[in-house]
Amino acid sequence: MGNVADLPAASGPSGRRHGMDRMTPDERSRLMSRIRCKDTSPEMVVRRAVHALGFRYRLHVDKLPGRPDLVFSGRRKVIFVHGCFWHRHEGCRFAYMPKTRHEFWSAKLERNRERDREVIHRLNEAGWKVMVVWECETREGAALKESLRRFLVE
After folding, report:
1. By the 8 A CB rule, do 84 and 136 touch?
2. CB–CB of 77/151 below 8 Å?
3. What are the DSSP calls for 24-91, one per residue?
4. Alpha carbon of 128 to those of 46, 122, 125: distances in Å?
5. pLDDT digits 0-9 by tens, 70-103
6. Using CA atoms, how far apart are residues 41 and 97, in angstroms rounded to an integer?
7. Kind and range of the H or E element at 132?
8. Which tens digit of pLDDT belongs to each residue from 34-67?
9. Radius of gyration of the chain (CA)
10. Are 46 and 148 in contact (CB under 8 A)?
11. 54 Ramachandran zone, left/alpha/beta (phi>0; psi -120 to 50)
């Protein structure tokens, strides 16, 4: 007899798969397609804070590796605003591993981390200073503003 994992997942009248995902593949696809890479809530918090500090910036400059979220050309500095889940923020409660399709998610999320390291290295090699602001840090208004100010002034 074959392994239980080889058997097709049972599905109910709604088409939902029992014991796995609570959504149908179409519902999951629609949900995932709504995840944005630009103009996210955490990015908007950082943009408002930087603007309030009196700094001006360009957005998502595609000539730079990784298309940084905020670019301060005259200062040769860039800021990335990373989602804790997607970029694997060490020790953060938002950087959990999904319970299903562990191999898929593990490989995908690790590749994101590798790409982040490569992009930061390339920017540093080109003479740019890089700051990463994590999604969870955008909830700490005063601390965030102070770290942004220190990064941009130094």
Report:
1. yes
2. yes
3. -HHHHHHHHHT--SSS-HHHHHHHHHHHHTT---EE--TTSTT--SEEEGGGTEEEEEE-HHHHT-TT
4. 19, 9, 7
5. 999 999 999 999 999 989 999 999 888 888 888 9
6. 22
7. strand 129-134
8. 566 666 889 999 999 999 999 999 999 999 999 9
9. 20
10. yes
11. left
pTM of the model: 0.77
Tokens 């005259």 belong to which residue? 74
Distance, CA of 139 to chain centre: 15
89: number of Cβ within 10 Å: 19
Taking the mean position of all CA atoms in its chain, how far away is CA 132? 10
- Give the tokens for residue 107: 């490989």
Q: Which residues of 92-105 are buried (b: 16+ CB within 10 A; e: fewer)?
A: eeebeeeeeeeeee
